[in-house]
Amino acid sequence: MKIKVVTDGSCDLPQELVKKHNIEVVPLHTVLNDKDADLTPDEIIEKMNSGNSVKTSQVTPTEFERVYSQILQEYDGILSVHLSQKLSGTYASAVTSAKKFSGRIEVIDSMSTSAALGAMVLKAVEFAKTGELKESAEKLRGFSKKVETIFGIKVIDNLVKGGRVGPLVGKLTKMFNAKPVLRGIDGEIKLYKVTLGFKRVLREIVRFINNHKILDNKIIIAHVHAESDVEYIRTHTDVEIISCGAGPTITVHGGYGFILVGFISE
Questions:
Q1: Fold agreement between 3-28+58-144 and 147-264
Q2: Residue 10 above 60 pLDDT?
Q3: Hey, where are the domains in the chain?
Q4: Alpha helices in 38-113 (DSSP H)
Q5: What secondary structure letter does DSSP report for 214?
Q6: Is pLDDT above 60 for 162?
């Protein structure tokens, strides 16, 4: 089978890899003051700093159906890999649309987002080359149980407002002027540790990486203007690092200075 890999706009990978592997990215919607808006990550930061409301909304079933229909004119099957269904309705939209195409589409919940979703998508690209649709999907579902996400965030307000983390986490970090280290656990964002100062956040991330056996010894890092923090991780770990600026979807929730590490454990 000739298989195409599809993901959504919460997936963070360098554009050169997206183009190289011909990955189809279906964007989520960016909503500025209750109206759809096409904004770059820098524009999102600027709008939020100016007091504007910037949110995201899921991909609709109709949008997926349009993308799938076009792809299946050329391809035999699709591996459609998406952010956790516990974080967005995008996965459910993909499942609804896939039912209309007689088993030619396998939809996978990555149990993650951002760079961790990127790690899953790169594995999907690898499996797609085998031409085995259902077998590849089952392997990916197995990997979704081993995907790891750890990240630091300097401004937690948007994650709280969007319901991605509980309000108690927001209150604790504000009360003590602390910086949280967050993890993806079972498809949800959970508080991992609370630290005083972002340098300690980075130390916890490095310790987390170094305490894991990592598939292919490769991690992916997505960030919002945190190049120096990426370099800190690079110099304190012995892994291959693929890094990129976070896309619009993750920038909305992560904000300036956000950094997220994703990988699949062995």
A1: no
A2: yes
A3: 3-28+58-144, 147-264
A4: 41-49, 61-71, 90-98
A5: B
A6: no
User: What kind of architecture, by CATH, is found in domain 147-264?
Assistant: 2-Layer Sandwich (3.30)
Decide if 24 contacts 82 (C-beta within 8 A). Answer: no
Model confidence pLDDT, tens digit, residues 121-133: 999 999 999 999 9
* Distant-in-sequence, close-in-space partners of 73: CB < 8 Å, separation ≥ 6: none
Going by the DSSP 8-state scheme, the letter that residue 33 receives in this structure is T
Query: Which tens digits make up the pLDDT trace of 47-88?
Result: 988 999 999 999 999 999 999 999 999 999 999 999 999 999
Q: Does the structural domain 3-28+58-144 have CATH classification 3.40.50.10170?
A: yes
Kindly give the residue spans of alpha helices, DSSP state H, lying in 129-193: 133-144, 157-161, 167-175
Distance CA 100, CA 130 (A): 24
Q: Could you tell me which residues come within 8 angstroms of residue 156 by beta carbon, excluding any fewer than 6 positions away? A: 165, 169, 170, 173, 174, 180
